[in-house]
């Protein structure tokens, strides 16, 4: 028997970052948004933990570890330890989310693994326990469980849904070279000289989401990691310039980058913008709607 769970990519409509805490993490006030780029994770019983990774075209599968380093093995072990059982599984990941792109693909896989193994072994883990296990695996993992659009606080692990009445369309423009999340946070520390007020989620963004108004949303996007990421990767400025030329309503770095998200008016506009970006020499371009669901079972 096998169970397959689908989990979505995320990016941050707003990413407010405060001064680094004593534990090395930064306090966040963020608005997470799940978009229609997916990894599928299939689990089945095995004698020991095993990971197999495949990917859609244009996704660099060789960058994903297949041993214990893969976050899905950490997820599986966390769940078995929580229940005091000795089971193991073969975990097959099919990636549709670009790797090391700031789209939280590994976090999506971890969330999918928790849900899939819980179903495979009929563990009936409570939602609260799944969220706690997810938080231990990574700051973005709880959001990957809940999906849609949600506020994230703490280091990102405390999530609460927000009203989002939009049917948004995005173009994601990937980059061949990944960007390490800790290095972007370090560059943030240098740029802000360790200081920065308490981050807040801005009201105009919440109003834009509630109204489902794309013009207001275009005005309200913001990401405190964008400047440090651009300082590390000045080449990304060209992607921003090209996105404006391609007619995007707004352009923003996804999380810690290097993927760039372009807000579009509707699905037709998104296809046009994606075509224009390809013509401007960006081969890794995806169109995606949002918000979409968090990790959910698709076959078992
Ligand atoms: C950039 C974002 O994707 C925005 O949602 C996240 O903040 C990153 O989340 P993530 O990849 O799940 O991060 P984690 O695996 O928890 O942490 C990786 C590293 O990122 C840095 N980190 C992460 C989250 C946070 N609030 N402050 C940090 O400084 C720390 O150096 C940490 O060691
Ligand atoms: N299941 C996985 N999928 C992708 N990468 C993984 C996985 N498990 C471990 N990794 C490692 O984690 C690194 C970051 O991967 P990921 O695709 O999650 O980055 P990201 O989207 O930038 O994450 P985030 O936005 O959460 O910072 C990869 O370079 C890879 O070495």
TrEMBL record:
GO BP annotations, alphabetical order: isopentenyl diphosphate biosynthetic process, methylerythritol 4-phosphate pathway; terpenoid biosynthetic process
All copies of domain GHMP kinase N-terminal, residue ranges: 70-147
GO molecular function, one term: 4-(cytidine 5'-diphospho)-2-C-methyl-D-erythritol kinase activity
InterPro entries in the record: GHMP_kinase_C_dom, GHMP_kinase_C_sf, GHMP_kinase_N_dom, IspE, Ribosomal_Su5_D2-typ_SF, Ribsml_uS5_D2-typ_fold_subgr
Active-site residue list: 10, 140
Similarity annotation: Belongs to the GHMP kinase family. IspE subfamily.
Protein name: 4-diphosphocytidyl-2-C-methyl-D-erythritol kinase
Record organism: Nocardioides albertanoniae
